[in-house]
User: Fold these one by one.
Assistant:
Number 1:
Amino acid sequence: MLSQFSENKIHQVRWVLTIGWLILIFSLFYDPISYILTEPNNSISPFSLSHEVFTPEGCIKVQQECLIERPYPIGARIWWTIIVPSSIIIIFVFGHEFWRRICPLSFIAQIPKALGIQRKIKIGNPRTRKFLYQTVAIKENSWLGKNHLYVQFGLFVLGLFTRIIFINSNRTLLGIFLIVTIISAFTIGYLYTGKSWCSYFCPMAPVQMVYTGPRGIFGTKAHQDTKAKIPQSMCRTVNDEGQEIRACDGCKSLCLDIDAERSYWGELKKPGRRLVQYGYLGMVFAYYFYYFFYAGNWNYYFSGAWTHEENQLGDIFAPGFYIFEQPIPIPKYLAVILTFTICIGISYLLCFGLEKVYKAYRKNSKKPVSEEQAQHNIFTLATFVAFWIFFPIGGRFSTSFLPTLGFISFKTFMLSVSSIWLYRTLKRSREQYNRERLTGTLRKQLEKMNLDFSQFLQGRSLNQLNPDELYVLAKVLPWATQQDRKRFYISVIKEELGSNRINVVDSTKIFKPLRQELGLSEETHYEILNQFLTEAKPNNKTLAKVWDKKCGI
């Protein structure tokens, strides 16, 4: 949605958000003012404590004991109940590209590059003493490149554990935690090129992956937007002439910032992908329901008392469960670990089993689905369920200060948005995506024929045809012989490969629907590719080497 906004404007937005974040962090260490907003007698503040919490009948109880309530600085409450939930809602509604262009951590990770102080290594030939200095990229075939989803999901779970045990209500520790996170993002930005922090380390990345799916509701369609010089949230900069240009360092081939849906389908089988999707569902359930398991009531969470609890660190070794009005003698830190582990495990096994059952059921129906499509459909349902655990529970306290009409309007909006997202996402498939991404090239090649297509299209133009209709048109043109269709196919391949929108290795699957419509064999595809790469070898040795290695030509 923000892909068309200029980098200068978004840069200003990032600065404002980053400065605001730093001010909030400072307030966690020193804030002599904001506690006034929580005074019980402050009738104009939405954060004021209710007089009832100071009475034995209305106090917030944890394991049947009243919490001590006093006016408190609101920095931690703003962070946990407004900023964090807002980021999730932004990602789900507006898509990853909106969030990635304004994310303060992503911005901070790019500061070493902007200052020209990134780490560089020396490469070259010692014999000739000719050396070059270049920034370091994380190799995608390295251990981290292959398994970063495990790392990021592990950091995400560790962060939630740390929240409940140490930093939910301890403002000093929360401030230190956020500063360490900022330093980590800056350090990764110094050590590695591009958006390595976002792609390989950021604990928020699995959340973006889950809630974005193929794309957000208001996200742009990078694979169809042929007019956009810089797609989605791709790295960009402004040159000396004031023109916005690409600044991609190639830190990841299937980059979420260039084409979110291409990244989605390309990484569906990546190690850790199911754990992220199904584990996140269990993690959301575990995180919010643990407050109930610990306190013995929902009022503890919905009141927000956990954002300013005075003795959080002192309860680490206290009973971690209170079930059926009985404390369970398991230390709180161990109870959290058990809750997280059990819920993640059950969620993973349940969703994975559902995926297998769904595929088997559809296999015996008139419309069977592939393993990939079954996985996608269960992924989509898991995201929808996770959102509707998060929103009514996690979002309830965050929106409690809204007037009744505002709360109802917001809830109606989120119900509508999530339903639309579910409907649109369930229908997506890799085949549909591949067809759509070739739509622009098909139209361009058909227009080159200078034929009057209106006689075949009942007055419609080529621009009014959907991808399926374009494929059929390419097949049934009355003059099209086998040789004509082959020439047309060659033109499409050269257009796509020449523009670097796809790579050679993936082209066989991507062009399969078009090949089927044109009645061409896979052998014909390889023959055309071999010819194309033979011509390209003098100018593109890297491309030729990749092809030689993958396909033995």
Note: Residues 332-363 form the longest helix (32 residues).
Number 2:
Amino acid sequence: METGLSKLGDTAPRQTKAISDLLQLIKDIPMDGRQGYDVLGFVYEYLISKFAANAGKKAGEFYTPHEVSVLMSEIIAHHLRDRETIQIYDSTSGSGSLLLNIGQSIAKHMGSPDNIKYYAQELKEPTYNLTRMNLVMRGILPTNIVTRNADTLEDDWPFFDDQDPVNTYNPLYLDAVVSNPPYSQKWDPQHKENDARFSRFGLAPKSKADYAFLLHDLYHLKPNGIMAIVLPHGVLFRGGEEGAIRRNLIENDHLETIIGLPPNIFFGTGIPTIILVLRQRRTASDVLIVDASKGFAKEGKNNKLRASDIKKIADTVTGRLTLPRYSRLVPKTEIQANDYNLNIPRYVDSSEPAESWDLYASMFGGIPVSELEALADFWKAFPGLRAALFTDNGTPYVELSVQNLSPAIGEHPEVAQFRKECADAVLQFADWVQGELLGKMLTLEIPRQEAVMSEALFARLAPLPLVDKYKAYQVLDDHWQPIAVDLEILQTEGFAAARVVDPNMVEKTVKGEKAEVQDGWKGRVLPFDLVQTVHHLPELDALRQKETRLSEITASIEETLEGFSEEEKETAAELLSEEGDTFIAAAVAKEAKTLEAEAKKVGKFDPESYEVRIIQVAAWLAEEKTLKAAIKKEAAALHLKTKATIEGLSDAQVHELLEAKWISPLLRSLHDLPTQLTDELTRKLEALAEKYRLTFAATAHEIAQTEKALAGMIKELDANEFDLKGLAELKNLLAGN
């Protein structure tokens, strides 16, 4: 604490105030254990991730992105799911987030999370302190935490205590080892050829310690254990000492899986990275190679694995699946034939097929049947659709037989039946979800619930063609996160929490200083806008109508001002703000009265005149003022009425609102999936039709006609001597073409 005081202020009073403010902030974080999860721990990891995102390369010292941790955790947890006690170890632990995520994933399958023991080793002392703090703050038993501040490669985990070498001898073999070591770091391999960690496989080159970390982790693995390590892509194909180690690992069947990750997924580096999964003892000799480099979402400067990407990778790895352009089980003989080069594109081609152009169709028109075959999955799902859209002339080319593809596809009986079957599957899922979430909301296991729901959803979607279950999973995950938060509150505080309304605190500037003040109320679980939609729709509609009218008036006033000529703006200068972009209501009202009085004397103004427009603006401004006052009054009344409604809800009404908040939006998104599929088919067919719509012959004819017309116009042009010579030469060129 004393070491870091200087960073909190340059004087003792400022340091004291900073610490006091921090303690007051932490005081508001619930830590009484009734939340069912470690709130402070989540806050801590959130802050670390935000710091990592802005810390550049420095971030790699202590933080593995949460999504990568979750992916590794799911793979490790699946392997260890049936064990009663588990020991896990991170040899370059950083903040400890990787260990914690694995522990959480494993705990889903175990009776007690206290049966997991955590081992961690970290070189840098400040980062090592992050590990210890993170583990302690997550409520892990102190007896289950064994941490060590040391150089993993130079000073391996001690086999014994010098004071009692016989009774403390422990080579430290564990059920799971994970790490995200510093990439391609220099190390000193001198005098390590007899080190038990490296003697079987060889020494990594001094310029790159990647395989040294890998062999260290593998050495500490139990015979039935599993390890996962993040490394740069180069370890798959670099030669020399690394090539020899790679050969030995493959020949001894230790390497189980290679996962190619998207680039730019780790903080501070854009290089492609991989996850290697290894086992100490295997019965198989093949290697599963997964190219997951194309599945991600862009988030700021970095790429991020989505929930659906993680789920697909984990399912592929745990199921040892071969999927087109994504993964393949590669026999050892093929790897041997490639001289132990494991570069992913050698085994899995995930690239999109290059676009080709059919020469005949480009010259004469028609759509090549061969290019329609690229949509074979759609034709298999809708056997009669292709014939309904295209005319087959018995040649390798077809003609489009409908004017508009979108309605022709959407209204086809097979497509309509497909949509009905999808809707029925979603309705079956809806019935199950209602019973699961609404019926068991106070007792279900929140950490496991998303997996349970995904299995139920997949089971209902399985008979349907075309539907990508991972897109459905992403929909589920997007909606699950806020549902999980509500469930945490209800299980922690009881069902009555749904009827609780809290002050809505916002930050405002008061007397020149920022302060937190109350701005109305908010439902702890049930949002005001949802309750208003269900229980106060007439008042809400009336308020929305006034708000719509207010928007119309604002737009009309802006349009009128933009329509003023420069002369009219000068005339209206005293009616406008200093910037000249808004009217001054009082000045316009006064001017309008003068103009109306003048109209009574001299007669009506022209409807398009400046005077009429000023009078109209004055009327709008007056209506705007009245509307704003009415909206403010009615909104405040509706707000208080909604507060009273939430506090007086019956149990049945709470269930109705929770269904509207949790289940209805999820079902609407799932119902959109078949529409997205048919829209995709429509876009692809429209692109194909457009591609060959204009033939080369037609284009050449059009060019010739244009050139002929241009040559004719040149004859009629008059110019000076030199321009005429230039036009004559252009005419000769056109005639030559």
Note: The first helix runs from residue 12 to 27.
Number 3:
Amino acid sequence: MTVPDVDRVLRRFLAAAASDAALIEAIGALAPAPVEAWRQTAAGMIRADRPRAALTLLDAALQRFPRDVELRYWRGNALRLNGLVEQAESVYREVLGEDPCHRDAALALAFLLREQGRIVAASAVVSASTRARAADAAESQANLGFLRECGAFAAAHELAQEARARFPDDAGIAALAGEFALAVGAFDRARDALRAALAREPQRAPCWLRLAYCGRFERADEPDVRRFEDAWRDTARDAPTRACIGFALGKALDDLGDYARAASVLREANALARATLPWDADRWHRFVAQRLAAPALPPRAPVADFTPVFVVGLPRTGTTLVATRLARRFDVRDRGELNWIGAMHDHLAAHGQLHDARAIAAAAAVVEAQMRRDDAPARFHLDKNPLNFRYLDLIAAMFPQARVIHCRRGARDTALSLWMQYFAHDDMAFAYDFGTIAEFAAGYQRLMAHWRATLALPILDLDYEALVAEPEDAVHRLGAFLGATPSAASAPTGAIATASVWQARQPVYTSSIGRWRHYAPHLPELTQRFAE
């Protein structure tokens, strides 16, 4: 049977509304055909959203060609789309057992595992596939991107080091290797890889920022400070790259105590960022008004053996510090900044299901799986996405047993810290102007006051100043709030993928309190906009 004949079989099948009779006719028409025709027909049915028919057809095909790996791969896809995920996983693993280089089966299995929150297993599949196939640079980068999306930074770091050894001249591989080395705290490796990436492709904007995050600068003649200075003088660079260079140089100048010049460079960098990522103030005000007016959501019954912890507040108020200290001292799994709460709110709202108890329970099950994952079990699982403050009503409905730690910090220090960072994300576009920071903060304060007045969710306020001034007392207070007892041994700091990556691994210092005073003579709007 030729490819056009396959097209005809599919057209007849779909024209007959994919009826059982049409399916029987299609199977009969394929009876004398070679295996490729069966594969293409099954794939066409799956793409046409007919997975039940595809599964029946594939079962018939495998009676004729029982050892065909491609047919079994497509059967795994059909099983998955029919909701038979355990059977699909078994089939994918059988395919990979016979053909470890089957990339499509590896990716299908990895995505299936990730959907279930089985991040360790998904990472292992992608890593094994990359090694088995001796993946080229493009495929290696794609696989490393998958690991990044999983938050599997340790596995990504290991794989990226291997890829860099194989492709020493590839700037993309070097950039990823630097990113993952930075996340796991391998700062020397990160510097080496990021410098290599920028030497080959200076337009890789995030590499400039990550290089600045690799440590604290002590001297103006350090190579990386000179590198930032030289790059900043090149005004011909595109706006996103120049913005990143400006924020990197501003961070270095701040480390060196050159606050006047840091303020000047950061003014220009923030202007570039505003042009690249404009903030829609009206949209934010509408969002806050809608959240304040939203009716209460139907609560789900608490899950006895799962206590999620959400660390919220304005960004740059100590959320990373809180998460790392809790994970070191107590039986807490720090999952970093997850995006599931906002995504689930948008999904439920788009389908008109925000007040559907079953839909909320289903969304909660997804979030729970992504927080539990498949590593060692723990009593508490922590999401430190600070912007989850926008959806505390949904958190309360999904997880009445949740605990919320609300991080606060002096307004001027918070605003300055925001203004000195380049976030490159639409949700953070307010951070490049003190006026829009003040507007965003006002909406945040209104929402937090509203949640306190309307939700039964336990919320602990924790001031950054208290955390850094008396860290032991603050950690004890956090443990008492959670009802946690200290672990027998301190856990090492896990991966950190935020601008706090270096600071969070250092001893706690109080020098960040009142930092705004260094900039008051150079940024008068900071003291004008924010009371202290």
Note: The CA atoms of residues 118 and 374 lie 5 Å apart.
